[in-house]
Q: What sequence folds into this?
């Protein structure tokens, strides 16, 4: 007969959460093993001071803070950053009215952040994975441009969208109906046409004789122009090596800020990708040849690409409800050859750098998205001890805990009365 | 009435005649071949092997430290300390862990293989809600690269099931995880057949869109009940035929029905039910359905809400095969809890199993079970590795009707063994060597024991 010790662990977790400092107050985490994911590396027995949602000091000579939290040697990392999923846009996949990531009419301007639901139950659940912010990707419609990414933190607050209309998502590669060549051709044409239009507009504005106002670019032209200026990154799904090379060529020709997503056969052209300094966002655990475009999928690819000099960011493929697994993906990548340092970067600083986010590191001036872990963040047995988003502490309790507690509590009454 | 008189006379005469003779002239007895696609599986080359000095999780709830495992003639011969065996190949497993071969009761490898292309979609015969006549083994593509990937994760036995589009999806097949170019070459000899059933959203969505039964959950239930009613009549007809024939009569055999053959097999207790079913109230109804038609409601798969009826499951002897944490893709998967498997397991006489239903997570069933153990222990449970391993070995074998043959390291059982580089419940754990029936089928460090599918051969 197994004894169930009811509630105790969850109560401790809750206590920790409620002792959090509010935004304006300052707090210091002391005696932590701080993984900065910067040149500073790992700092032992270190102190991190947070004020107004930012890290204001690391190992200051004197600690001035409203609250001191003794980390007792535990590991402190930047909050993990999810990417290329639909967090906050889909509550239950099979419920059509709870899905807002796609629309037949979506095009390059599609701003799904307007549909972001901070109250989604997936958000607190994903905090259990140490995830503090997330790059949400729209699924778009029939157009090859799926819309624009946005960044939301996992606070579950109503103002948690940090950046909207951020980067442009495009889906290239194998087509069920028709040829992938057309998509690549159209992309080339759009970039060429926009380049020409910009040059023409520049010439026109210089020729002051003609007082006619240059035509205003349309909304989608504005987005293309932002790609050409490097203001927005082109976040491209593609798997086959030849498709990846085509994208690298386009990057070079149009000076694009390119991010490759999926990139299942990237190992075949790792050197090219590394030379072009293009980041790869990939799923560490995709190792089966799902198609003719991904015959070289392997658990070792994250390590191989990193060793070839590619900056790798890890993302969980498939259903967003499994975003929580991200840290286990990183752990498996380590088991298959990725260094611990690179693994941590692949879920923090590399994601930030790939998507132009100002987070993913523990450094003075950075947003205080921090996670204190009970042990090795990637190990199955570890849990989040405490988590801060913009310097505010959040619990990792979720609906799942409420259900478990309801069904493991002894009661004479029907379970519905246990709240 | 007059019309019948002559036949009655004829009947009366023949009855009188049979009354006189010992037996009448009997046609050859009609027998249904229950094993028409027999296994041709042979163990790979094997030798007596002694694995020494490891931490052994036996699958019986026991952990032994610094223990040896001796495999002779494809069977577990002995587990103990300081064993020796003449002529044995010795493997120094100091610092390593040994478990029984891992068993996945829910896989679609081979029927939904990689690459995932139109012509490989062979898991759901979505042409009718009751396709008890189809057998998953007839869809299995043994060249699916997923089998080798699973082997590298320690999988030695797996059940390939039809999908869950139908009320009755068809027979499943249990395979030994060995490379083969025929399905029969992988088939687990004498393993019981399974019959896949599905509750809930999938069948009613598939057939509801075609405006035929089932379109609702009540339609689902009616579909099952009508099928079992037909099967009961079919069974009765065959039993009558057998009894009449045994009594010396010359009855006409019932008309052969390939679909009802499978359902009758369940009613006869020969075929085991594997029921995709998520919700507590639906599992409770499926249990009653089994009682209504006198068959064992078997193993519930996915069973997201098993924790809500853990007592009922144990009382009725149902196994539940679950995930550690998949959820949210359907309403019926919304109420997931991380401790599901543990809550089910905590009840006496329970049968908690961890399954994959995925070509990806089958490669890490050890980690899937590990996640449950740690989350449960964070929340008041006290589960040890020697208990957690049973969820993917002994309990899984029980669910497949193979508990006598495999699933634990006990003398006389199949030598299905995995040597892990460390505690298998770590994210860093890897299977180093995998044995099926005492023969090495996978070796992480020896290419000779790394199989490559025909499909991947010669790819650039």
A:
């Amino acid at each position: 007969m197994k004894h169930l010790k009811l509630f105790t662990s969850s109560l401790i977790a809750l206590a920790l959460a409620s002792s959090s400092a509010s935004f304006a107050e300052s707090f210091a985490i002391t005696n932590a093993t701080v993984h900065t994911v910067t040149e500073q590396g790992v700092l032992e027995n270190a102190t991190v001071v947070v004020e107004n949602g930012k890290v204001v000091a690391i190992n200051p000579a004197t600690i001035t803070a409203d609250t001191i939290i003794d980390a007792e040697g535990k590991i402190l990392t930047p909050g993990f950053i999810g990417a290329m999923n639909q967090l906050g846009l889909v509550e239950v996949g099979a419920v059509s009215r709870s899905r807002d990531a796609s629309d037949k009419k979506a095009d390059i301007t599609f701003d799904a952040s307007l549909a972001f639901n901070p109250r989604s139950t997936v958000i607190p659940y994903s905090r259990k994975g140490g995830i503090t912010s997330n790059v949400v990707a729209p699924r778009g419609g029939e157009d090859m441009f799926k819309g624009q990414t946005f960044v939301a933190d996992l606070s579950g607050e109503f103002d948690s969208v940090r950046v909207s209309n951020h980067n442009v998502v495009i889906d290239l590669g194998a087509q069920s109906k028709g040829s992938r060549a057309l998509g690549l051709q159209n992309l080339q044409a759009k970039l060429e046409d926009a380049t020409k239009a910009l040059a023409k507009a520049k010439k026109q504005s210089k020729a002051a004789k003609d007082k006619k106002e240059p035509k205003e670019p349309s909304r989608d032209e504005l987005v293309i122009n932002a790609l050409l200026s490097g203001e927005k990154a082109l976040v491209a799904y593609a798997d086959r090596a030849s498709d990846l090379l085509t994208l690298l060529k386009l990057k070079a020709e149009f000076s694009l800020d390119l991010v490759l997503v999926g990139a299942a056969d990237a190992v075949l052209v790792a050197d090219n990708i590394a030379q072009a300094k293009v980041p790869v966002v990939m799923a560490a655990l995709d190792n089966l040849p799902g198609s003719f475009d991904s015959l070289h999928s392997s658990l070792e690819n994250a390590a191989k690409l990193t060793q070839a000099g590619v900056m790798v960011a890890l993302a969980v493929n498939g259903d967003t409800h499994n975003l929580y697994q991200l840290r286990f993906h990183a752990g498996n990548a380590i088991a298959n050859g990725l260094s611990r340092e690179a693994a941590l970067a692949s879920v923090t600083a590399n994601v930030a750098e790939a998507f132009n986010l100002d987070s993913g590191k523990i450094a003075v001036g950075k947003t205080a998205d921090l996670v204190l872990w009970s042990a090795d963040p990637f190990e199955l047995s570890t849990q989040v001890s405490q988590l801060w988003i913009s310097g505010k502490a959040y619990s990792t309790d979720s609906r799942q805990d409420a259900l478990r507690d309801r069904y493991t509590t002894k009661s004479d009454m029907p379970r519905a009365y246990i709240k | 009435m007059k019309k019948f008189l002559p036949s009655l006379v004829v009947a009366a005469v023949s009855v009188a005649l049979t009354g006189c003779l010992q037996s009448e002239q009997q046609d050859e007895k009609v027998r249904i071949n229950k094993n028409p696609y027999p296994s041709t599986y042979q163990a790979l080359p094997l030798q007596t092997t002694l694995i020494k000095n490891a931490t052994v999780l036996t699958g019986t709830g026991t952990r032994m430290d610094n223990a040896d495992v001796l495999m002779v003639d494809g069977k577990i011969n002995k587990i103990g300390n300081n064993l020796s065996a003449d002529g044995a190949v010795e493997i120094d497993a100091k610092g390593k862990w040994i478990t029984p071969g891992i068993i996945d009761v829910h896989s679609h490898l081979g029927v939904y293989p990689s690459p995932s292309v139109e012509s490989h979609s062979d898991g759901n015969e979505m042409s009718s809600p009751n396709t008890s006549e189809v057998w998953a083994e007839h869809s299995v593509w043994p060249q699916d690269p997923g089998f080798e990937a699973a082997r590298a994760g320690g999988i030695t036995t797996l059940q390939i099931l039809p999908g869950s589009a139908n009320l009755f999806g068809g027979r499943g097949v249990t395979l030994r995880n060995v490379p083969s170019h025929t399905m029969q070459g992988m088939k687990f000899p004498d393993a019981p057949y399974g019959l896949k059933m599905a509750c809930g959203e999938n069948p009613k969505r598939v057939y509801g869109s075609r405006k035929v039964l089932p379109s609702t959950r009540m339609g689902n239930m009616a579909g099952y009940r009508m099928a079992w009613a037909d099967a009961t009549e079919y069974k009765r007809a065959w039993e009558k035929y057998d009894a009449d024939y045994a009594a010396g009569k010359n009855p006409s055999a019932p008309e052969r029905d390939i679909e009802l053959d499978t359902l009758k097999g369940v009613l006869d207790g020969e075929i085991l039910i594997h029921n995709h079913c998520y919700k507590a109230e639906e599992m409770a109804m499926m249990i009653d359905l089994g009682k209504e038609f006198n068959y064992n409601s078997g193993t519930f798969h996915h069973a997201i809400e098993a924790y809500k009826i853990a007592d009922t499951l144990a009382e009725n002897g149902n196994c539940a095969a679950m995930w550690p944490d998949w959820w949210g893709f359907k309403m019926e998967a919304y109420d997931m809890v991380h401790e599901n498997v543990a809550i089910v397991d905590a009840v006496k006489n329970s049968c908690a199993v961890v399954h994959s239903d995925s070509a990806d997570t089958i490669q890490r069933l050890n980690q899937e079970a590990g996640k449950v153990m740690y989350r449960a222990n964070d929340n008041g449970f006290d589960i040890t590795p020697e208990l957690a391993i049973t969820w993917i070995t002994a309990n899984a074998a029980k669910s497949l009707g193979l508990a006598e043959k495999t699933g634990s390291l006990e003398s006389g059982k199949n030598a299905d063994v995995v040597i892990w580089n460390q505690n298998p419940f770590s994210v860093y754990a890897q299977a180093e060597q995998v044995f099926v029936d005492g023969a090495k089928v996978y070796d992480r460090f020896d290419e000779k024991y790394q199989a490559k599918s025909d499909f991947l051969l010669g790819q650039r």
